[in-house]
Amino acid sequence: xxxxxxxxxxxxxxxxxxxxxxxxxxxxxxxxxxxxxxxxxxxxxxxxxxxxxxxxxxxxxxxxxxxxxxxxxxxxxxxxxxxxxxxxxxxxxxxxxxxxxxxxxxxxxxxxxxxxxxxxxxxxxxxxxxxxxxxxxxxxxxxxxxxxxxxxxxxxxxxxxxxxxxxxxxxxxxxxxxxxxxxxxxxxxxxxxxxxxxxxxxxxxxxxxxxxxxxxxxxxxxxxxxxxxxxxxxxxxxxxxxxxxxxxxxxxxxxxxxxxxxxxxxxxxxxxxxxxxxxxxxxxxxxxxxxxxxxxxxxxxxxxxxxxxxxxxxxxxxxxxxxxxxxxxxxxxxxxxxxxxxxxxxxxxxxxxxxxxxxxxxxxxxxxxxxxxxxxxxxxxxxxxxxxxxxxxxxxxxxxxxxxxxxxxxxxxxxxxxxxxxxxxxxxxxxxxxxxxxxxxxxxxxxxxxxxxxxxxxxxxxxxxxxxxxxxxxxxxxxxxxxxxxxxxxxxxxxxxxxxxxxxxxxxxxxxxxxxxxxxxxxxxxxxxxxxxxxxxxxxxxxxxxxxxxxxxxxxxxxxxxxxxxxxxxxxxxxxxxxxxxxxxxxxxxxxxxxxxxxxxxxxxxxxxxxxxxxxxxxxxxxxxxxxxxxxxxxxxxxxxxxxxxxxxxx
Length: 651
Fold this sequence. Notes:
It contains six helices and 32 strands. With 651 residues, the chain is mainly beta. The radius of gyration is 25 Å and the shape is globular. The N terminus is likely disordered. A hairpin with a 6-residue loop joins β22 and β23. The longest helix is centred in the N-terminal third of the chain and has 19 residues. It has a 22-stranded antiparallel beta barrel. It has a five-stranded mixed β-sheet with strand order 1-6-7-4-5.
């Protein structure tokens, strides 16, 4: 049985059993309604400790709302970021490795946090965005720029925040979706939730599979079909929040993902039947207590990541166990300030054939976050983090932010944003322990960055449902001790070395126009990024320092989208532009720029048999103009593809 057709649900039996038990609980509670007295003592607001995001004053944040995520519910984080943001994602093909470059930095400079915990693989120091199904989360936020003081190691180029915010008093809700498409695509998802005043539960499961036997243009002529590119991917996520008394809240979450995929060979190379199994288990448990002026939180997480890779002549297996703990205490200083102090610990335990056995490592950090709003128009923040790594010293990583509302009228507002930050990235376990070549004495990478932004919002005085938001951000950053894998003198293999200093600077602009009426909704968004990234220092013998753009960093990227709803109909489209990218340090080789167009059209039946349920039929077309392009050199991308989905929602 091929990996595209074998469901392999054995990993999820325990999770499904747990989900059945969790959803039996709200039914029992529904049979035992709360007394009037018990309802009156519950607070009217959600019991929740302030998240680090609330201290990110002065920074740019891109938020993908539920309407946007719904179009990609059976897809991955890579799909929605590539279509709806000006970020450049370097993709090896559909269902294959997909990594991000933010503000000219590398994939290892983007931190990914799930409910506040870093989920980057400590071996590679990065994540494959394709392996993060959107069905496992409810909200996606992207915060470009250095923010290690807030989020820890790796937050140099930017941070992606994945979360599932709690919604109280929603009753029962659910959705089920099936999807079919070109090149053997099949997908499905199921999610259900329940919440009252005390308990909130959510469970979701999804799968996605494809043969990916698409035709592509072969250099020099011909149009063969892609081989060895099939994949299967599954996900199961569960979240629970339980109010304990008036001021406490228990949070528990689980996210299990598994992918079995063939590795698409480069164009013109021999098929070595490469195949990779990725399996991740993420568990979280926490308790939060909120008083009148104080908040406390203790949370722990345990991750297991399995990555097994094999070809006809090679095999590499790894199993990584990560344990993380966070504790914090927040004090409200009057009505305009809050101070949060905390600490976190990480323990990594790895068994990998390329390490020659078992390796473990401990890391610690302490942090402080201050938020001060002296006036209604002025917000200030200051955060600092001190990490402790084995055998090396990491500098303090502060983040300073300011937001000043210079204009505020009944129809428009103008906000000035300023931030300065220092970031760091701890060496990965591969960089330290890989055999041969690992260097245990490798220094951490560090960065310094600054940004200045303007955010303008306008609301039509005669039509309060018409709004317009525009944001412009300029930034500059320097990264020191940039790690490169390079041969050392007298060695026949490559080793990680602190070789480069890199400077990046650029401009980011975005604008959105939205109009709402009783039966009509329409919005249009435009985003553009100019990214200049070059090395300013290189310790490689004989290296030439020029202002040449870094590899696979496009100078220009842009994204346009329009979405509308009229009565029962919905329609939308996106256009993304990616500029040319160099593929070698000094030679003339580059990948040409390309523009991709997507479109969708759907119809919704709002009620079924008089029940509060809706059925939506949606057709989507990817690469509408049948563009032939490459995101990564010699990795084929699919031509025009069609997807049709049927989604049932109820409450």
